[in-house]
Amino acid sequence: MRVNIANGAFKCMNCQIGGGDVLSYYIQFHGDDFVQSAKKIGAWVDDGKYPIDRRPKTLSAARAIEVLAFEASLVAIAAGNVAQGVRLTDEDRSRLYKSANRINRISQEYLP
């Protein structure tokens, strides 16, 4: 392995892993993500704060609530039909799966 002692860059001549520092090496060698690797080598300081998700939301909060309300209405109607003994068609079932998927995606985006 070659290591540049001035900046910490490395290159393994056997496995061809290369990078800029020890953390980069650990991530590549062990396959862990950044946070896991940093914690394992003692380079992670937990300040007790919840990490902030800086990705932009795909929907505004108001629009997300509108979509959730619409999808919840469809689910409620289908549940009422099933309770009355109505069999759902394949099309109805497909639409319910889409509703559940939208509800899950929105909840994952907005809930911690």
Give a description of the structure:
This protein is mostly helical. The chain folds into two domains: 2-40, no CATH class; 61-110. Helix content is 54%, strand content 5%. It contains four helices and three strands. The chain has helices at residues 22-30, 34-40, 61-83, 90-110; strands spanning 2-3, 10-11, 18-19. The chain has a three-stranded antiparallel beta sheet, covered by helices on one side. Strand 2 and strand 3 form a beta hairpin. Helix 3 packs antiparallel against helix 4. The radius of gyration is 24 Å and the shape is elongated. It starts with a strand and ends with a helix. The mean pLDDT is 87.
Q: Strand order, biggest sheet?
A: 1-2-3
What would you report as the Rg, rounded to the nearest angstrom?
Answer: 24 Å
The separation of the N and C termini measures 41 Å
- Quaternary structure state of the chains depicted: single chain
Instruction: Please estimate the helix content.
Output: 40-55%
Label the overall shape: elongated
Short account of what is shown:
This protein is mainly alpha-helical and 112 residues long. It is 54% helix and 5% strand. It has 4 helices and 3 strands.
Layout of secondary structure:
Elements: E1 2-3, E2 10-11, E3 18-19, H1 22-30, H2 34-40, H3 61-83, H4 90-110
Antiparallel strand pairs: 1-2, 2-3
Throw out a few tags for this protein:
112 residues, mainly alpha, 3-stranded antiparallel sheet
